[in-house]
Amino acid sequence: MTELVDRLYCGERLSDSELAALIAADDKETADLLRSRADSMRQRYYGKKVFLRGLIEISSCCKNNCLYCGIRCGNSEAERYRLSKEDILSCCQQGYELGFRTFVLQGGEDPYFTDDVMCGIISEIRRLYPDCAITLSLGERSRESYQRMKNAGADRYLLRHEAASERLYRSLHPSEMSLSNRKNCLFTLRELGYQVGAGFMVGAPGQTVSDLIADLRFLEELRPHMIGIGPFVPHHCTPFANERGGTLELTLRLLGLLRLMFPNVLLPATTALGTISPTGREQGLKTGCNVVMPNLSPVRVRKKYDLYDNKICTGEEAAECRGCLQRRIESAGYFVSAERGDCIEK
Predict the structure, then answer these.
(1) Which domains does the chain show, CATH number per domain?
(2) Distance CA 74, CA 72 (A)
(3) Which of 13, 138, 175, 337 is the least buried, fewest Cβ under 10 Å from its Cβ?
(4) What would the pLDDT profile of 55-89 be if each residue is shown by its tens digit?
């Protein structure tokens, strides 16, 4: 495995069978080597900087019925909410005072947030905080919608493709959703000049090594600026309630591979990683990650944005959450950067 890792580190493109061998390698020696090479690569591009993204979860309402998601429209037990424009701007103000220079507006595919509503919010954030990046994560929309929000001041868009394998995508989503539309949205966002983020779940029910290779190959085609992956974590009110979750070990192997395959990418140590292990995010940082996303949402709604069970940081105030993460980042040997944290183009 050493030869394969070193070839990746030197910029070689591995075959599917070689990638499969690394994905399946669960020995400590390979894990340690991947971690070391991935950390070296991230430091080559970003040093020891870790970029903070202030996450604002604007709505737990969603028109979709994805089988894995706790806020799926078919979950009658979910508590629904929407933040007002004033709520969102208040979160931004608090975040700016805490040193955040990127705001991430994330929510379910909620029909309330029309283009007019979103553009009004985006343009006001842009007016008030011209030195900040505005990131959106609002699901599949039309080209015209993406263009209008870009014109209003949005910089980045996060849209996980979830699964690049048609078979696996079909097993995770309702029939009215399609992988082809998901991919088209991502390519459209790139064409419109967004910094684009894609990604997938690790350990989703029915996922195979071949499915993971399909994800890696799709990312090679897309060349996103950000890649967000995290372990699948079951939610008790979904059809996958009794499925096994994704593992820390496999997620870390894939993070290491992603850093070596996409050296300049922005790679988050996700909340889901911290949910399945007390030191998950720190281990992610040591395996090539350089982004964390503390929660700026009002505490009163955090438990309602319930994508999966046992989600962490739902009771912390924004300042408390930021301080905790800063200490964790420093304990792992890195430091919080006050920059916007744009992707370094190769």
Answers:
(1) 2-337 (3.20.20.70)
(2) 5
(3) 175
(4) 999 999 999 999 999 999 999 999 999 999 999 99
